Amino acid sequence: MATRTRKRTPAHLQPFDVETEWTKADLAVLRDLKKAEALLPDNAPRALLSIRLSVLTDETTSPVRQELDLRKMALERGRRVVGVASDLNVSATKVPPWKRKELGDWLNNRAPEFDEILFWKLDRFVRRLTDLSTMIDWCLKYGKNLVSKNDAIDLTTTAGKIMVTIVGGIAEIEAANTSTRVTSLWDYARTQTDWVVGKPTYGYETVENEDGRVVLAINEDAYRALHWCRRAALRPKPASASRMARVLIRSGICGSGLTTSTMLRRLRNPALMGYRVQEDKNGGVRRSKVVLGNDAKPIRVADPIFTEEEFESLQAALDRRGKNQPTRTPGGATRFLGVLLCYDCGTNMTVQKTNHKGRAYEYLRCGQCGSGGHGAPNPNHIYSQFVEDVLKVLGDDPVMVREYRQGAEARKEQTRLEESISYYMTGLAPEGRFTKTRFTKEQAEKTLDDLIKQLEAIDPESTQDRWVAVHNGKSFRERWEEGGMEAMGADLLRVGVKCTIKRTKVKGVRAPHVHMKLMIPKDVRDRLILKEDDFAEAF
User: Fold this and answer.
1) Where would I find the Recombinase domain in this sequence (predicted)?
2) How far apart are CA 25 and CA 27, in angstroms?
3) CATH architecture for the domain at 18-174
């Protein structure tokens, strides 16, 4: 039956290039708007403009028009524009606001610098109710406002608050139903011979048949690659999986990211016989198993790349050459990956496990030096020494957590005091209301002095929205004792702590001498401040 590929790329959808879109007239309008904005008072609320565009078509609103319209709206609202978060060629369906390159940086790191987010239309900002609900929750937490030029969204208005309630309710219902829908869809898809959902196994691609149904077809390049690998595995002197991967990369059939483990998973996948499979995690080993239908027989979804005899002979050949590596350790075999580096080549030190005459051996080796360098036996001893060195330097430091402090209340109190001081100073001026009697003058002067003292006591920094570091009551020693090496490794990798391992061969001794050098950035304590991820649970 004839088939055709499903990929369709409309010719009229082109990536947007902002550099070619500003005209002289647009730039003149922009200059005028900035001049008018400069006349706003210093304490004017600050606005961040959010601009987004997937692709430029005749029906879309260009980023230039979005920015100019939003600047005009900001000026009408008495807002000073402090930044423009322009994310072009970005899909709002696939990328939520907090994961976009520019807007995400403002939301996660620069929240104190703006008071509200302005966007041209709701679909320019988000296209999923759950994303909008998450952003509303974030704004309420940090005292920000969302304002749309062409939609009734403004968290300071009654209609906007009603919108928040409606969106929040809908998002809660959607969140409750998502898991059920997804589970039901996958359960249904596993019983169908048509390809309903999911990414095809390597070797296949989705196509549409003459009836318009989506089915799987064999990819010719992958077919040749897989059969070459099978022939290479069945040679009298079989090729290793790592050599297969190198040959396929050099030939251009596979990308440069192909690894030995990925190569083996592809060759061991029973889906290559045309059957539907599902992932089967057994003791940390990733494998796929055949899905059986109601008749207890495998469900065929495509023509086979290998017959059952070819597939079984391939598995036997791979088993003969397999090294029976120990079961994968949860979290990986190597602790402090990315922190422990080879002194000579600078690559990561990783744990290599071998079995010889019934005994298991572990070594820390690098990826670039010949044969992994001299190797560092007993990784646990190196881990213990590394942990001890780190705790000596950083263990007693307090764990600081970044918290957001709003300056609205302090600004309100400062304004009240300034207005009161101005009122009493006017009253104490010659012929003022407090100068008519000695008693009223003395009382007014006393009150004025008290107001001035209260104003001087206000920390100017407290009137600004800001991040502050607060001690959470623990030291890093306590934090790492609770979380173990995984927590310590994650923190050290995040802040850029490194430790080089130098191995020197000792004459007459098989094990080399290991020298460790701990390298800690000067601003490590600032980097160690924990930053809460407000969007960690968003989906």
Assistant:
1) 201-324
2) 5
3) 3-Layer(aba) Sandwich (3.40)
